[in-house]
Amino acid sequence: MKKAIDLKILDPRIGTDFPLPAYATPGSAGLDLRACLDSTLNLAPGETVLIPTGLSIFIGDANLCATILPRSGLGHKHGIVLGNLVGLIDSDYQGPLMVSMWNRGKDSFTIEPGDRIAQLVFMPVVQAEFTIVDSFEQTARGEGGFGHSGKA
Ligand SMILES: O=c1ccn([C@H]2C[C@H](O)[C@@H](COP(=O)(O)OP(=O)(O)OP(=O)(O)O)O2)c(=O)[nH]1
Ligand SMILES: [Mg+2]
């Protein structure tokens, strides 16, 4: 499904020096976000830094959100993940898109201006309207959870 989303360029390097976020392949789910830094950033082991992406989006549809997810290569090979594990962008948010980068690895990691640091994925949202009840319709699982069914 395609959907038009308003995007504001906050840093003039976006769309010039650094490409606008774009799907790398026809089947890509994520758009890479780039570090809109003025200079090289050295992320020490254990350190978390909030990095601007140089853009803002306004989703404007309560049935849609965006998530910021780690890039698997950075996370697996270098221990570079997100300080909030997953970023959630509300449909009514209009501020700058920020990426919290956490070095959970043992070595420092260098981030250069324009580096692709995370990815943005749009997702459908269902807003719940709660119905207060005293009991639920019975299911096979019932209240079992958290490993209730065993390991293998
Ligand atoms: O990685 C992220 C996560 C969030 N946001 C922005 C968009 C989101 O809509 C807003 C609020 O995020 P969230 O609700 O997760 O944070 P909060 O700590 O609950 O803040 P608030 O009280 O503003 O809702 O911050 C980002 O730019 N990057
Ligand atoms: Mg919130």
TrEMBL record:
Residues annotated to bind substrate: 71-73, 84, 88-90
Query: EC number(s) on record?
Result: 3.6.1.23
Task: State which pathway it belongs to.
Answer: Pyrimidine metabolism; dUMP biosynthesis; dUMP from dCTP (dUTP route): step 2/2
Please list the reactions this protein catalyses.
dUTP + H2O = dUMP + diphosphate + H(+)
Q: Which family does it belong to?
A: Belongs to the dUTPase family.
Q: Which cofactor does it need?
A: Mg(2+)
Q: Which gene encodes it?
A: dut
The cross-references to PANTHER family, in alphabetical order and at most eight, read: DEOXYURIDINE 5'-TRIPHOSPHATE NUCLEOTIDOHYDROLASE
Q: Which organism is it from?
A: Rheinheimera muenzenbergensis
- Top-level taxon in the UniProt lineage: Bacteria
Q: Where is the dUTPase-like domain?
A: 18-150
Family annotation (SUPFAM superfamilies): dUTPase-like (SSF51283)
Protein purpose: This enzyme is involved in nucleotide metabolism: it produces dUMP, the immediate precursor of thymidine nucleotides and it decreases the intracellular concentration of dUTP so that uracil cannot be incorporated into DNA.
The protein's matches in Pfam families, at most eight in alphabetical order, are given as: dUTPase
> Annotated Gene Ontology MF terms?
dUTP diphosphatase activity
Name of the protein this chain belongs to: Deoxyuridine 5'-triphosphate nucleotidohydrolase
**UniProt keyword annotations, A-Z:** Hydrolase, Magnesium, Metal-binding, Nucleotide metabolism
